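Handout, section 4.2: multi-component inputs.
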Amino acid sequence: MADDLLKLMQQWLTQLNAQSMAPDDMAQWNLWQQAFAQMQPFTAADTPLQQAELIALLTRQSLEFTRFAEQILALLDKTESKAELSLILNQFHDHLRRLTHDWILQRWQLPEQLGALFKTHSFQDDLLLDNPFIHGLKSLLNSPALLGLNQRLQRQLQYGVDLLIEYEQALAEYSGHYTDINNAATLAFLHHIDSSEPAINSLGQLHDLWVESYEASYAVRIRSDGYRDAHGRISNAVMQIRLFLQELRNQQLQQLGIPSSDLIELLVERLNKQRKQIKQLQKEVTLLPELMTELTELRQRLDRFTSTTPGQDTPADTVDGQDRA
Amino acid sequence: MKGLELNPERIREELSAFQQRLQQSYQTLRELGTVDVGQTPRQLIFENDKTRLFYYAPEGASTLQTPVLICYALVNRPWIVDLQPDRSLLRELLGRGIPVYLIDWGTPDAGDRFLDLNDYINDYLDSCVQACCRHAGCAQVNLAGICQGGSFSLCYTALHPQRVKNLITLVTPVDFHTPDFTLSHLALKVDAALAVKTYGNIPGELLNDTYNSLMPMRLGVQKNLGMPAQLADPQKAMNFLRMERWIQDSPDQAGEAFRQFIEQFFQQNLLLKGEVKIGAAQVDLKRIGQPILNVYALQDHLVPPSSSRALKDATASRDYQELTVNAGHIGIFVSSRGLKLLPDAIADWLKQHD
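Output:
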């Protein structure tokens, strides 16, 4: 399998070098995709996990980079006009904006259960915009008892919808910061290109310049109070939804008489208290022999003291005498 | 756009070179075996729940009466100080005749959800200090804390000053509210109690994402696109994989300890105010009179130098010294620049204070 893959990659390289096909020829692109597609079984079967994961990551990134490079090539081959360079930069900007967008959605994705729910609906892409599902559900829940929902469940679902709305708004606010960061980075990027001496002539340089421009804009923005608040808001919104779903699940489990995570947590908390008590007892038990030794030594010293000073009351005698009296 | 002269020929060459390196990378990754880390011989001398204490014997006779005990952070794993034979701060110290003990906190599971800072500092760390003293036949240790482990070491020294002879803090956050402390700034509005209620233990993966988000393009796109250049060569690939393995090896955080650390240290900045509570005790840094060597990295994007430098006026120590290394938070331990400077500086300072 691995040899097949490498052969396929070699074939692609040969084609690229020989320019035997037009750069925008889809066949070339398909060949490359085919090579990447073959990577998955190859990595799973032959390679240690860490390397396999790295290969998967490399594959994803390379696919993006190659696709972008080929789009640029296609544009360059079509025209020699410098005016068209703005098109190239737009391509580049779109390419990176897509990466950023994917990153945001991946980082702040909904809990698995909700994600799965939305994926079953065709409007999944509208989630951030209009979101008919949420509106529909909300209006449904606003109609009282006719639906047969008991009040508690209705209240819970209403709360769930509120959480989803908060998530949606928080994500929109958070994404807004990234739009601003991208715009500021693009301005800086264009400025750097314009003043670049000598001129930039490779995609690698272009990438590096973008990274510099982006990180500079990003560093300024994330230190702002607005970004900090948006980051806190989206973090908390995602966690609240996750917690809400967990609590719903726990209630269902409780009704069925199955131990829930709440119950397990309670047990863990009690065990932890007992663990601390046992450790404290162990410490005290460990100290006991030392205390016993000290006590024995004290007794011996007292005996010696008593035997060398006959006729004097010892503190113990006094105590005994008082007790007897 | 006068500064841009893209040429199809040049891009084809670039793409071709990229793909060739990529091809070579796949080949290399396929051929590389298991990634070895932390290879320096060691001896397990003590265990307390999941916490383990390892002893590393010095090469030849010991040059110090008091051994070094390294206290690493709860985040990530301590073997960054022993990444590989030629990039090992630990091995360098042993080579200078310094006996080293290293704490491994282990990996918390669901049963550890309620472990708190009191457990980590007054039980695990304290018992390791005592085990170290018993093993080395001494009454005190030279405590070296790294990052969060440095904050723990400060707390421990303030609470148990009689057990610490000298204190070394490495890339340690002290003032959590300096203007350039981005990580702390971002943590300010995150509800730590909600996080713990939601996740129980905090997933290590979540924390890794947070660290990466501090420089998303540099640690994402740029790093990934630069990978084929690293991976094409087997030796470089192995070094890269070791580092990656360390980055990915991020244990979950015991929930309650995480909450206390975020709230007291990050959000309320109580360490510097002398108001951190560990169990029933309050941590007053002014109780620290030990000699201190404070090491920080100039390019540290996680713990900025401004945060570490706040230690200078925070304690009662009259013997305070700083060492700056022109490296990053991790580079200080694994870069040639860091390893050229750090082992000698630490060894010399310890010998002067033994």
